[in-house]
Give the backbone structure.
Amino acid sequence: MPISAKTPEVANLTPLSKPSNAPRILAADDQQHILEAIELLLKPQGYKVDVVRSPALAREVLTGSAYDAVLIDLNYTRDTTSGREGLELLSEIIALDSTLELAVEAMRRGARDFIQKPWENERLLSILRTQVELHRALQQAERLAAENRLLSARGRQEFIATAPSMAPVLEAITRIAPSDANVLLTGEHGTGKEVAAHAIHALSLRAACPLIAVNTGGLAEGVFESELFGHVKGAFTDARSDRIGRFELADGGTIFLDEIGNVPLRQQAKLLRVIESGEIERVGSSRSKKIDVRLVSATNANLPAACRAGQFREDLLFRLNTVEIHLPALRERREDIPVLAMHFLLHYASRYSREVQGLDHSAMQSLLQYSWPGNIRELEHTLERAVLMCRSNQIQTADLGLGMQRPQAQNLEELSLEAVETILIRKALQRFQGNVSQAAEALGLSRGALYRRMEKYGL
């Protein structure tokens, strides 16, 4: 915000590492009434506030304590106009923590969050909340990035879940993972069901064996049996050699059947037989083979309703959902948005070798306020695009591309078919709150066709 040339007294918010459960704030200012005002404002909001009257005292406190953010004045008694004392203190704060440089750069050394005195309470609180969220998200994302490098070598994925609404999910995964019980994961499209399946497998006694994922929603009925159960040479025209199916590949481990609700009724009967008997039979063969797999399935459809409508076998559903785990939509776990956003930002900045290190205040607020009809998958694609489009080391609101407006009728002819489809699908998903079945019906598409288009356009 603008700074008065006559009295350039400003405060600079800088995130620090090693947060405790209650956000800890250090305020440094040479005016006692300013410090008292800060305490009166922040303590009722749940912050733990420490105050000091000089840069020297701030240095002393910071060497022995960790804070989530520091609120510092730029001008003290030695130099009342240039802000040099505050900037020197800022540099020394950075030197105290090797992990802080990235966080500070992510906020452009705090330059975006100057607060002119007298400040507006709501603006100060909003900025402070965002700074703490950004810093903690950055710390967690950095930790996850380090863990993911190790986990990826083991074929595992990190499951990011800190929101209260995810606590039942984590508890259920922890409890049932060591067993061989079949699991049905439910939830809207893009809520992270495949990542949950990886977490279940990683915590199971089968973790050393393969996890084979199959997108059953994308399999044409003609190749369904061949893909899942394999075939022998000569079984059909293009069967030039024997082929191992996905169930056989997963022998001893876990098979993950995504979009299970899209399996046609005729194929459901064959899938049920394999689950009940524990045996597969390759297409074109009369010999059965015993297999040992743990089944994890996922759907965003209402399978009990599909059973009542005669579109899904009830006996198959009973086999699939020994344990059912529902993953909430991203709009129901907004506390995870900062951590997920920073996780994806760091990943794609590294992948594309871009010097993008954070999001500014307004960008983070845009992420928190958006409805996310495409859930985590949409958030990931949004951050990937933002990393590519960002012109500085900090993502701005415009880089996110969340403000897509409905095109004027006269401009439709200027859009490509892909752009029009993307807009229509996005609108349908927003209208039906991410329910793919209802969106597909409204668009006149099959669920499988809509699913493939969503994959194509990153929705």
About this structure: The chain is about 45% helix and 15% strand. The mean pLDDT is 77. The two ends are 36 Å apart (CA to CA). The CA atoms of residues 1 and 317 lie 58 Å apart.
